[in-house]
Amino acid sequence: xxxSVAEVLRGRWWEDQAMFGYKRERAHVxxxxxxxxxxxLRFWYQRDRAATFEAADAATWAPGAGADxxxxxxxxxxxxxxxxxxxxxxxxxxxxxxxxxxxxxxxxSPGFNDSEWSTxxxxxxxxxxxxxxxxxKQQQHQAAETKxxxxxxxxxxxxxxxxxPIYTNIQYPFPIQPxxxxxxxxxxxYRRRFSLPASWSGQHITxxxxxVDSAIHVWLNGNYVGYSQDSRLPAEFNVTPFCVTRGKxxxxxxxxxxxxxxxxxxxxxxxxxxxxxxNVLAVMIVRWSDGxxxxxxxxxxxxxxxxxxxxxxRPQVHIADLEVKTDVADDMQSAIVKLEVLLEGWPRCDIQxxxxxxxxxxxxxxxxxxPPPPPQHPPSPSSSSSxxxxxxxxRSPKDPERDDLEAxxxxxxxxxxxxxxxxxxxxxxxxxxxxxxxxxxxxxxxxSGGREDDKVVVIGNTMRVRMEAKVDKDKLLLWSPDxxxxxxxxxxxxDASGKPQQVExxxxxxxxxxxxxxxxxxxxxxxxxxGVNRHExxxxxxxxxxxxxxxxxxxxxxxxxxxxxxxxxxxxxxRWYELTDLFGLLVIDEANIETHGFDPDNxxxxxxxxxxxxxxxxxxxGARVIRMCERDKNHASVVVWSLGNEAGYGATHDTxxxxxxxxxxxxxxxxxxxxxxxxxxxxxxxxYMRVNDILAIAADPNETRPLILCExxxxxxxxxxxxxxxxxxxxxxxxxQGGFIWDWVDQGLWKALPAxxxxxxxxxxxxxxxxxxxxxxxxxxxxxxxxxxxxxxxLDSNPAESAVEPPAGPPAESAAESAAEPAQEGEAVGEGDAxxxxxxxxxxxxxxxxxxxxxxxxxxxATLASAATTSHGSKETEQQQQQPWEQVELxxxxxxxxxxxxxxxxxxxxDLNFCINGLIWPDRTPHPAMRELAxxxxxxxxxxxxxxDIEIFNKSFYQPSSAFSFSFSLFSLxxxxxxxxxxxxxxxxxILSSPLTVPTILPRQHHVIPNPIPADLDWAAHDVSTxxxxxxxxxxxxxxxxxxxxTGQVVAxxxxxxxxPEGTISSAKPSALEPPTKPAISQPALSEPAxxxxxxxxxxxxxxxxxxxxxxxxxxxxSWKINGSDVLLPPALSSPCLSVWRAPTDNDKGGADASYAxxxxxxxxxxxxxxxxxxxxAVAGDATVVSVGGDxxxxxxxxxxxxxxxxxGKEAEGKGEEGQQAEGDDEPLRVEIGRDxxxxxxxxxxxxxRADEISEEEAVEVGSAPTNLVEAYGGGAxxxxxxxxxxxxxxxxxxxxxxxxxxxxxHGNGQVLVKFWVDPSPxxxxxxxVGMRFQxxxxxxxxxxxxxxxxxxxPDRKQSAHVALHYLPVESLHVPYIAPGENGARIDARxxxxxxxxQSGAQGGAQGGSPALDGLLGLVMEPVEIGGGGGGGGGGGGxxxxxxxxxxxxxxxxxxxxxYCAEELHRAQHEEELVEDEEFNHVHxxxxxxxxxxxxxxxxxxxxxxxxxPCPYAFGVAxxxxxG
Length: 1524
Known about the structure:
66 strands; 26% strand; 24 helices; eleven-stranded mixed sheet; alpha+beta; ten-stranded antiparallel sheet; globular
């Protein structure tokens, strides 16, 4: 291969599936080339010490350059303390071309003039860097006040190449014509100058690209270096012949390497000595290659050098690889640690002649409890050529916070001894170069020939040394996810004098993995896999990794009881596996192979069939599996290998599985494609299989393997229902061992809102044209481009001023502090690097200041201690600042930015928001579903025994209960507030609260402790009556600080109902909790009902304190004024008070025409209106009809609009009830009511869909799953909520009607009792909800309720939401899912109160006076049980679980309150598009509510017990005002 661009273009290796690597080094474990054993131990101690939850709290997720700076800092910190490793991260010269053919010839030459090129940060994706540049240019253009200014801004702009981020799930973003890719193939060229220290002269130097997407050609100093594909594994090249070091003559280098000088190795035009030691690295990266066909994973297509670029210096004879295997005895009491060291000589030499002078020494140190040794206590060499015994010393005291490393010692747990290799056991090693067929040097091939003795195998220029060490019982600590004990392995290569030439080290976990008896066993114990799938994703940097952000992911997983992660669907950053080893997570390591977009049924047409069925792709696919295994083989956390994901099934899979079983028999193999009956998997690993189906497999006596769901519980938007159903089955059934939820994080990317986009906040208008479509504006912006604007990247506006020096400490330290440290010898010095530490610090500070401020995320405890409204970017009221005793976690808002998904960058094709399916937002704020996940994954179970005692179950397989503390509290639910002075309520005080004394419970054992409630408890003293609801809360917390949490972290919290025997409670205070005035639910003697001929009835109190309007012609709706101020209004958009529809969730849209959303739309449930309505009125007591306006025999069918009603309310301000007027010109029926009076209005109506059609814009369904997903993933076949779901029909084909009878009882004391009898057509689809909706004044800005919470919950996702007294601002009830839909429900409420947040007026009312309009005001709402209803239950019941109890038989209320009506939630496609009502909140009070589902998002997946059939329902709600 020549070095010219022309030759590269002629070869077109990016369109040749047989050419996936040229001159690429063999894969190996990460190496660091330490100078001494002490340095190696200290490096790992400091590296691990930085990985704590405090580092996680410093992670940055905000938009702007801050994350890019953090990425560079992290890349450099990962090699900090390694003088023989240099990072090339930082600023590179960059230019993007539309296709490879436009790359200028000679761009790789050192003398090439790149001064007109822009600068890009590495690691990064060029698509995201270009997005930042475009935004910067737009800002410059907007800031230009004159045309001259605009022209100046664009004067230096180079021609732009449009290359946006692209999101697809299954489909390829280019035509399927393998191995060919589009001619228009964006191609990036990078250049970087660096210098190397003189000490590197004569050494073996390799250049490593940790991750490049998608294919890369490399030149150094004008010399062609090599080529590589596979965007998720390292591409390493030997660059020894091409490097220039400082202070050495070139002739000496030529003598050592035997190479002739390359073309122009010194930059043109430099003075003598100015460029001495300078190197120029140039790379060309194409976006699309034949390798892209193997990387069709469900994530963003992003390109560039997204991981670090490093140089590694080693001696000419060096350690090239290490392999560690742990052989744990059957009794788990001892272990043999086996070590194989690969030595390599370069240049090629007779390595056999070096055997007598080469010493390999290895030790195993205790890394968990001991810090590294100080320099003055090095290990003493011995005469052995293969091991160095270490004299035992006293164990150092445990002092993880101590900084004085010089005074500490560490003993060796074991020293390795040489062992023999049988003939043929050594694996053959090819040369380090390799040919055009992949250049992997014969990875994994069997060796033959060469020199063997009892210790080594020599083949070519390599030598393998095999050693082992025994760890006895007294020193053995096994690695497990609950107790991730690690040792430090140190291997030293010394010369004949005993001087170390190279030292390698790494963490080693001793553990044993096997599949036996239908169980996956770790250390002989079956483990429940409580897992998640995780993509590498950052909202600002894409797939670029940042240290603190990776630690944040691990910490959040541990805090939510996750113990396993599947690296979906590619090998992750090497640091990720270090963290999973350290923190304790079971890992499925997955090869970078997915070909989902190929036609699965095309087996004959070679052009489009699956690559796994085509022998021409076998080598490319096999290399990806081999290289993954060789890189990650030493990680204890990696317990399963995966052949990839959704790549069909073919002979290549059997071949790869056979290779893995031979290469590493210690780990089982996973592959879901092709089903479980293939030779390519050792596990039954289906995805999205329903509960009934996994139980059926578990019952199959012919199945001998465990079932672990590789994907389940699709967490898209408001989802994750039914988790408890899965885990009830898993925990009770042998052969079911858990699964991995899809998936961890919403893959939203930060994007600037269009410049002309403005959010309307002055008033609500729920019509479809309330605000322009954000998607339309984004597309228009993309088409328009950024013509005429100049500017540069926020990070690298000036390459000479943008360097980021290597930090001296963990990345969590401030940028200025990190940059201020001097560079170590051996670290690369780049072209743009600052000359001094002070300049570097200033550069980093400037770059950080240019970024949007990114406050560090607080821990969950800190988050709960701060106001939720603050985290949501809203204003706090004074009262909330004083008493925020309960909060929920909400993501921070960044004005002008939003989280984009497919299509938002103008990318076509795209799969919209199907990448927004995580358990957490992109900034790692947990969704409410994470609470449910933590609950079902919890460590401990609690339940009452038949004798009334408590049984505790330790669910861990490894950890005894002694690591945890237990507590108990008992409380009763309080009654609704009565006087206004009780608002806001004080935090509830438990009746009892105390720690529990629990003896040590061994893993998987049960223990019963006596009932902690004293038998002689004085219940009356605690205001407990026979009607009180009592609950006991049992909690388990961590009793010592760990890496992932502080002391007190909750790992299990279970609430159990307390049912006391009859006679237990004294009757001395039987009515202690009785409210002074209960809602009147019994009907007094009423007058004879009279027909109502008017459209509405206004009931006014005689003291003019309130006026209530019942809107008869609307089929029943309520308006309520207090002192002339609107408190309640009917729903917006002339919608009925009856509510049976919701803004569809992503799950509701799944299933195309069979989806719930499609069937609701066809039935017109979102457009109901009263087709005919009438009513009667009756009065009792002090109530009188005072006037009848208009013609009594002629009622008008005029429908008022919400805007008109609001205008009426404004005109009536200050007029009291006299100013209230019904809709249109129709005079209402007026009634005055005294304190003892009552008015009953009974309305009957039939609701049908309005005749108006939905507009084309309205019909767009963001989040609708592609129609081929059912075929691709399956699902919906077990009858749980899906078998009975039919296809959507045209509205004319469905008998769509709902009959409603409602009674509105208005009492003189201001209480209103509403009763609904709902009779829907049996031909309707399942209803989303059955309840009422109205608008409440924005002034009622706080909510307190007695029910489940505080976080969002639904009937099929409620076990983590405890029944208690909860208090939140109304604005915090809304859950800002990226793609809006139904959200924010709180269920099983005994009562709900909305109340004002401040009191700025005089109090009155209680003494008979009129309260000021800005005084305190509350509205209490309670469910009332009435007769005459049919099925449907309460909607909050269903599966209750064995521990949670049931509220069956008690009337319950499910509610939500938000500034957005359902129609607005349905209209908007992004959270930022929502138009909030400034005057009213939209409230739903539901008798029954449908579950959210979550088994998948492409079939109707709500389990049938959580569906609401179209049958009769009856319910009531009592309203009571509180005024002060």
